[in-house]
Amino acid sequence: MEQTFIMIKPDGVQRGLIGEIISRFEKKGFTLKGLKLVSVDQSFAEKHYADLSAKPFFAGLVEYIVSGPVVAMVWDGKDVVKTGRTIIGATNPSASAPGTIRGDYAIDIGRNVIHGSDSVESARKEIALWFPEGIAEWQSSLHSWIY
Ligand code: RTP
C-alpha cells in the first residue's frame, strides 16, 4: 500500500479543524499510520519546504508553519498520495472546488489549512523527516470491505 504525509497547518489546528480533517480521510477508507501534534522550529520548517527556498513567499511560509502546533500524519491506502491531494483541493483555496478541504475551509493561499505530499517520493522523504521514530504497523479490520 502507498503512504502519504499529511500536515494540518497551524491555522487548521487553531480553527478547530483537526477532527473534521481526520474524519474525511477516515471516512474515505484510508488508514491512519502515524499521528502527532508538534511545534516545529525554523530550521525544521525550512527543511520540510527546502524545494521552495527560492520562492518569494518562502520566509512567510516558514513563519506561518512555525507560528503554532501542527498535526503531522501518515495515511495509508491505494493511490493515497494523489487521492489525498484531491481531498485537500488546489493550493490556492480560491481555485479549490467546494467539497475539498481547502474549498470548504480556506480563503487565502497563505492560510490554506493543510499540506499533502505531492508524489510518492516526496511522501517517503517527508515521512522520514517527520517520523524518524517510525510509524504504526497495523491493518484495519475493515480492509476487506474497502478493497
Ligand atoms: P503544500 O506543499 O503545503 O501541500 O502545498 P502545495 O503542494 O499545494 O503548494 P506548493 O506550491 O508546494 O506551496 C507550498 C505552500 O506554500 C504556500 N504558498 N504561498 N503566497 C503564495 O503565493 C504562496 N504560494 C504557495 C501555501 O501555503 C502552499 O500550500
Break the fold down into its secondary structure elements and pairings.
Elements: E1 2-8, H1 10-14, H2 18-28, E2 31-38, H3 42-48, H4 58-65, E3 70-77, H5 80-88, H6 101-105, E4 114-116, H7 120-130, H8 143-146
Antiparallel strand pairs: 1-3, 1-4, 2-3
Structure description:
The structure is a single chain. This protein is of the alpha+beta class and 147 residues long. The protein has helices at residues 10-14, 18-28, 42-48, 58-65, 80-88, 101-105, 120-130, 143-146; strands at 2-8, 31-38, 70-77, 114-116. The longest helix is centred in the first third of the chain and has 11 residues, at 18-28. It starts with a strand and ends with a helix. Residues 52, 57, 61, 91, 109-110, 112, 115-116, 118 line the site of ribavirin triphosphate (RTP). Ribavirin triphosphate binds at residues 52, 57, 61, 91, 109-110, 112, 115-116, 118.
